[in-house]
């Protein structure tokens, strides 16, 4: 038999490319496996694009270190256990913790890949409810939580993101992001490199603001290299410059009636002039003023920021000011500016109405009193919550798709706290630096055996499409997929039993959602009969029934037969996806602030400007000879968990400390160096390069695979060092609880 092919959306980064998998019989004839992956030229979103990570799909799928069976720790050693037994054991042991100490004694940590799986997006959040805990943590507070807080205050909801309209903009300003390498984040756009080239070809402009001359910066017309950690000050000065020079767009480009707080903003920010922040940012005032003019003067412009603006001391302020610049220059909600995507499974737009608004601190962490933000507590607080005795202590932790021992600051402390905890359960395919501290590991099956739908990332897509990948290979008998693992835990915890049909979870959601919809006069199914609607859903696995419901209730759906529109059957019939067109204006209907308007100058953000002023005026970190550490990503890497694939090893993907020749000469560093940060010291190979500005050094994260108790044979060969061991986790952006990962002060000496 010749090999067959099957389309599959790539789950490995936010670009969500369509792949064509090649599937062949295994040698010896025992079933099939994935032998190849290439870009799917017919995919309606990615049109054939693929990156080196996507191309390793076969290696990832077939990795011999991938766990096939649950591992249960007995007398200190992991023993392979059957599925029913392992799931029952987990529920029994969670019950003991909950019965003794209450639901809040169990923490839940959701890692990055859970944003890419159906299990992580549509089921794992329900696990928190089944546990009865508010101790929810995620990679978000090592990443984009500042953005969520900022848009929460501006637009009223922490999930309402405006993304750059990269296909139509005339001037893209990229601050603290390297999308040519990362393929974009908090903006889902396949083939970012191609889109930046297309921008240049149509005569558009690219400005990159980054202390490193990244691959993205190399494509730029203008590259500004500020001191790390100073983006909020730089952007505040751009805003001050826009006001001072009369560059604010007339009627904010046509959305003036939907925006409040312009005068207050002007008053509060006017003193943060380019001249005042120039030394702190180490960017000449004239360059900041030119940036303001270049954004205001472009027919359309979009300012886009990521990790370098987010995981810093003033992360929320920086993320807020990015959108403030977009708004003041008339670029919010218009083609070529930044726009709010309309995802196919999001509820259909409703008429404008004020919302509840956004606030934080509805509860606080027990030990340090960190405010909850968007329902989460800071990932860096997990260790202290586990360690610190007393009422309300965390006694157990469940992780889903996370490796916080490497990805969060001070992993050694967290590892010790996990060892001391009563129960640690990890839903994860690998025995790695985190899961090796578990009592039970429940491995999801291979990606080829799992269905795929981007329920979250479609909300960030620069063009609307709908695509679904059914499993390419069948599951072995008796093996649950990841949805089944999470759903059965939920059913076990809620007393229904781990042996129940996982689809029951979906039926509960369907019944509750439809009951609410039919009562909502603005719903496309207002006044209909719930049973009739349930009866229209397909006879299919629970996740498909739920997706069918969401799609039919959504902007492009058929409203359960009430209008022409999509059902899930249409999606199944289109293996390369259905294009739903470019982004469209969404104001004011999308706003959920208490005023029903965009709130430009929310109190918590305006209030935090005082802290920024303090930093600017004290010039902290600008002392001669001081060094700041930033991170970087490599094209052939994915955080901490793809170093086990031979095809992604070596070459440029190396765990080296990049340093400018002037700094290296001054410090006499060559070969190996010792880096000392607030959390400890590491010895690393140095790479001297003028791709990084003086005063800044860069080290990638996700390395440090030297723990003998893991099962990552390839990664262990060239382990690298864990950059987060330099960080004690005490530095946070207070408005979002996000760890400072970029702009960490370090000292360096020859080793
Ligand atoms: N210093 C520094 N630290 C950083 C960063 C940085 O830039 N600098 N970046 C931060 C960012 S942006 C992020 S998002 C975090 C990531 O932090 P985490 O999400 O905690 O870590 P990852 O390395 O993404 O690990 C993902 C885990 O998911 C598992 N996994 C993979 N696929 C699946 C699946 O389909 N299902 C399940 N259940 N598990 C799966 C992997 O085996 C691995 O254990 O790291 C953060 N840490
Ligand atoms: N190949 C690959 N792709 C990935 C990942 C991966 O590990 N590898 N991880 C995925 C994940 S989880 C995420 S969140 C995204 C992240 O996507 P990006 O944010 O695009 O990726 P980073 O490489 O972290 O880019 C951050 C940039 O900010 C710069 N920077 C650091 N500090 C500052 C600062 O203070 N100000 C400014 N202006 N710039 C600063 C750094 O030099 C770096 O170039 O990538 C995703 N895609
Ligand atoms: S850019 Fe690469 S890793 Fe990201 S979705 Fe596309 S193929 Fe997968
Ligand atoms: Mo991330």
From TrEMBL:
Pfam families from the UniProt entry: Molybdop_Fe4S4 (PF04879), Molybdopterin (PF00384), Molydop_binding (PF01568)
* SUPFAM superfamilies noted in UniProt: ADC-like (SSF50692), Formate dehydrogenase/DMSO reductase, domains 1-3 (SSF53706)
The residue ranges of the 4Fe-4S Mo/W bis-MGD-type domain are: 3-65
Database matches in InterPro entries: Asp_de-COase-like_dom_sf, MoPterin_dinucl-bd_dom, Mopterin_OxRdtase, Mopterin_OxRdtase_4Fe-4S_dom, Prok_molybdopt-oxidoreductase
Keywords carried by this UniProt record: 4Fe-4S, Iron, Iron-sulfur, Metal-binding, Oxidoreductase
| Gene3D superfamilies, A to Z | 2.40.40.20, 3.40.50.740, ADC-like domains (2.20.25.90), Dimethylsulfoxide Reductase, domain 2 (3.40.228.10)
Protein name (database record) = Oxidoreductase
């Amino acid at each position: 038999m010749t090999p067959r092919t099957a389309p599959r959306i790539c789950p490995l980064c936010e670009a969500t490319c369509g792949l064509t998998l090649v599937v062949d019989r295994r040698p010896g004839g025992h079933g099939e496996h994935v032998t190849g992956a290439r870009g799917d030229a017919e995919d309606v979103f990615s049109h054939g694009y693929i990156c080196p990570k996507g191309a390793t799909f076969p290696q990832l799928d077939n990795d011999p270190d991938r766990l096939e069976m649950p591992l249960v720790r007995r007398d200190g050693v992991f023993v392979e256990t059957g599925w029913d037994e392992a799931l029952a054991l987990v529920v029994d042991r969670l019950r003991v913790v909950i019965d003794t100490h209450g639901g809040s004694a169990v923490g839940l940590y959701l890692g990055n890949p859970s944003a890419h799986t159906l299990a992580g997006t549509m089921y794992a959040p329900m696990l928190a409810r089944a546990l009865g805990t508010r101790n929810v943590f995620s990679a978000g507070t090592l990443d984009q939580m500042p953005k969520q807080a900022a848009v929460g205050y501006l637009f009223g909801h922490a999930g309402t993101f405006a993304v750059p309209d990269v296909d139509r903009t005339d001037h893209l300003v990229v601050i603290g992001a390297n999308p040519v390498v990362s393929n974009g984040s908090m903006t889902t756009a396949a083939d970012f490199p191609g889109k930046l080239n297309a921008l240049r070809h149509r005569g558009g402009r690219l400005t990159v603001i980054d202390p490193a001359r990244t691959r993205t910066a190399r494509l730029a017309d203008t590259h500004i290299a500020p001191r790390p950690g100073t983006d909020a000050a730089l952007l505040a000065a751009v805003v001050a410059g826009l006001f001072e020079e009369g560059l604010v767009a007339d009627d904010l480009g046509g959305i003036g009636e939907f925006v409040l707080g312009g005068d207050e903003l002007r008053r509060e920010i006017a003193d943060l002039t380019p001249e005042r922040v120039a030394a702190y940012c180490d960017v000449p005032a004239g360059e900041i003023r030119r940036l303001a003019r270049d954004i205001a003067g472009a027919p359309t412009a979009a300012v886009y920021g990521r990790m370098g603006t987010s995981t810093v001391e003033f992360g929320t302020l920086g993320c807020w000011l990015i959108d403030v610049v977009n708004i003041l220059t008339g670029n919010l909600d218009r083609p070529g500016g930044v726009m709010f995507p309309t995802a196919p499974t999001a509820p259909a737009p409703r008429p404008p109405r004020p919302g509840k608004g956004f606030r934080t601190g509805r509860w606080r962490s027990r030990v340090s009193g960190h405010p909850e933000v968007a329902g989460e507590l800071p990932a860096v607080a997990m260790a202290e919550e586990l360690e610190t005795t007393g009422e309300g202590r965390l006694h157990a932790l469940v992780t889903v798709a996370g490796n916080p021992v490497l990805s969060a600051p001070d992993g050694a402390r967290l590892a010790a706290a996990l060892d001391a905890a009563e129960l640690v359960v990890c839903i994860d395919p690998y025995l790695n630096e985190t899961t090796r501290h578990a009592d039970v590991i429940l491995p999801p099956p291979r990606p080829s055996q799992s269905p795929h739908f981007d329920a979250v990332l479609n909300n960030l897509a620069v063009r609307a499409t709908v695509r679904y990948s059914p499993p390419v290979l069948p599951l072995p008998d008796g093996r649950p997929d990841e949805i089944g693992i999470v759903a059965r835990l939920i059913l076990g915890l809620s007393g229904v039993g781990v042996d129940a049909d996982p689809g029951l979870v979906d039926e509960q959601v369907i019944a509750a959602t439809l009951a609410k919809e039919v009562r909502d006069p603005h719903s496309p199914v207002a006044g209909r009969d719930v049973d009739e609607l349930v009866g229209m859903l397909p006879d299919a696995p629970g996740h498909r029934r739920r997706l069918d419901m969401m799609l039919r209730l959504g902007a492009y759906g058929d409203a359960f037969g009430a209008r022409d529109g999509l059902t899930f059957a249409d999606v199944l019939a289109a293996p390369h996806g259905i294009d739903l067109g470019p982004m469209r204006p969404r104001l004011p209907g999308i706003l959920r602030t208490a005023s029903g308007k965009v709130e430009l100058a929310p109190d918590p953000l305006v209030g935090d400007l005082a802290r920024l002023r303090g930093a600017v005026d004290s010039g902290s970190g600008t002392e001669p000879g001081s060094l700041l550490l930033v991170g970087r990503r490599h094209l052939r890497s994915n955080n901490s968990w793809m170093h086990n694939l031979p095809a992604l090893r070596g070459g440029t993907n190396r765990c080296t400390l990049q340093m400018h020749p002037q700094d290296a000469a001054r410090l006499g560093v060559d070969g190996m160096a010792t880096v000392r940060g607030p959390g400890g010291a590491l010895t690393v190979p140095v790479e001297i390069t003028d791709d990084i500005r003086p005063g800044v050094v860069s080290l990638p994260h996700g390395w440090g695979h030297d723990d003998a108790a893991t099962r990552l044979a390839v990664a262990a060969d060239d382990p690298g060092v864990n950059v987060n061991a330099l960080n004690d986790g005490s530095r946070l952006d207070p408005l979002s609880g996000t760890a400072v990962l970029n702009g960490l002060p370090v000292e360096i000496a020859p080793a």
